[in-house]
Amino acid sequence: MLWEPSGCCCFTLRTGSLVLASIVIFFGTCSMLTGYLAIYDLDKSFQEVCKNEEDIQDCITTVKRASYGIIGTRFVVDFIQVTFSILLIHGVLKNKTRFLVPYMIMMLVGISILIIMALILMGILIYEGFWRGVFIAAIIFGAIIFLETYFLLVVRALYLQLKRSKGQAHVILTEDSSSEIIKA
């Protein structure tokens, strides 16, 4: 059985979910605007990065493609996060559980990516013999993963609370060893 928090920090589940979604919307929007504004200042940076290379034009083209790819990917991810957070706010305000599901899936995918990134980074640091870095990375990624998991559990608890208030019983599946499988 999975633990269900009764609130988020000092807020109710509803208020905590609204605050979480609002924070994601604020920082996602700021990140999208920063990425959009950064595109106009990149040409000077490309010149600076590639000034010591033999083929400056080839270097600038390569760096420009990589930079635009990273900025574009970040923009798409931020847009998805903002969209799903808006859906979460709508679902909380209208008591519609189906609008909470995309946010929970997004959080689960984000936690999975963080775990994979942490393991890769720690593996590289172990390979390089930088044990202090492994410890620091474990603490930082552990704290972030813990908070993200807690926030996911808060939204899930609200989801289950809304389901129960609608009279839709959430059945917890258990393994019953006394049941037999009937073959047709």
- Structure annotation, total helices: 5
Q: What share of the residues lie within helices?
A: over 70%
Largest sheet: none
Taking the alpha carbons of the first and last residues, their distance comes to 32 Å
Kindly estimate the percentage of residues that lie in beta strands according to DSSP.
under 5%
Radius of gyration, in Å, reads 23 Å
What is the number of beta strands?
0
Label the overall shape.
globular
Please identify the structural class as seen in this structure: mainly alpha
Q: Quote the average pLDDT.
A: 86
Keywords: Membrane, Transmembrane, Transmembrane helix
InterPro entries: DUF4728
Transmembrane segments: 18-39, 75-93, 105-127, 133-159
SSE topology sketch:
Elements lengths: L12 H27 L2 H8 L6 H39 L6 H28 L2 H35 L19
Helix pairs in contact: 1-3, 1-5, 2-3, 3-4, 4-5
Key terms:
globular; transmembrane; 184 residues; membrane; transmembrane helix; mainly alpha
State the gist of this model.
The chain has 184 residues and is mainly α.
Provide a descriptive summary of the structure in words.
- There is one protein chain.
- By secondary structure, this protein is an all-alpha fold.
- The protein has one domain.
- Helices cover 74% and strands 0% of the residues.
- The protein is built from five helices and no strands.
- It has helices spanning 13-39, 42-49, 56-94, 101-128, 131-165.
- The two termini are 32 Å apart.
- The model has no long low-confidence stretch (mean pLDDT 86).
- Pfam families: DUF4728 (PF15860).
